[in-house]
Write a structure and sequence with these properties.
Shape: elongated
Strand content: 25-35%
CATH superfamily: Ribosome hibernation promotion factor-like
Number of domains: 1
Order of helices and strands: EHEEEHH
Strand order of the largest sheet: 1-2-3-4
Number of strands: 4
Structural class: alpha+beta
Largest sheet: 4 strands, mixed
CATH class: Alpha Beta
Length: 114
């Protein structure tokens, strides 16, 4: 399981909200098992509430998502959706690179020297 850090700016984070964040982070693990750290930053933003999620993966890739909503749970739902889409794109890119192959013929076909 990934290391999860929840930070709140100018507000206290109730235990229920912290548990909700951990549930959402567990949902991300369905998409990618290479997640090392997840940092969630919650802050009030005028009349709205803002959630930022920073995901660090094992090979150094970093994903960042931000969202605002009428409450922290809504903002968290929106930011998790954004990060899930980013994870899906990242996974697809890796699979495409594997499909292209790394052999000399594939590299010559792409115009790369050996």
């Amino acid at each position: 399981m990934a290391q999860v850090s929840v930070t709140a700016r100018h507000v206290e984070v109730p235990d229920e909200l912290r548990e909700y964040v951990e549930e959402k982070v567990d949902r991300l693990a369905r998409f990618e098992d290479k997640i090392r750290k997840v940092r969630v930053i919650l802050s009030p933003d005028g009349g709205a509430y803002r959630a930022e999620m920073r995901v660090e993966m094992s090979r150094g890739a970093r994903l960042v998502g931000e969202a605002s909503g009428t409450g922290f749970p809504e903002a968290l739902d929106l930011v998790v959706d954004k990060v899930e889409r980013q994870l899906a794109r990242e996974k697809e890119r890796r699979q495409d690179r594997r499909r292209e192959g790394a052999g000399p013929e594939a590299q010559r076909a792409r115009g790369r020297p050996r």
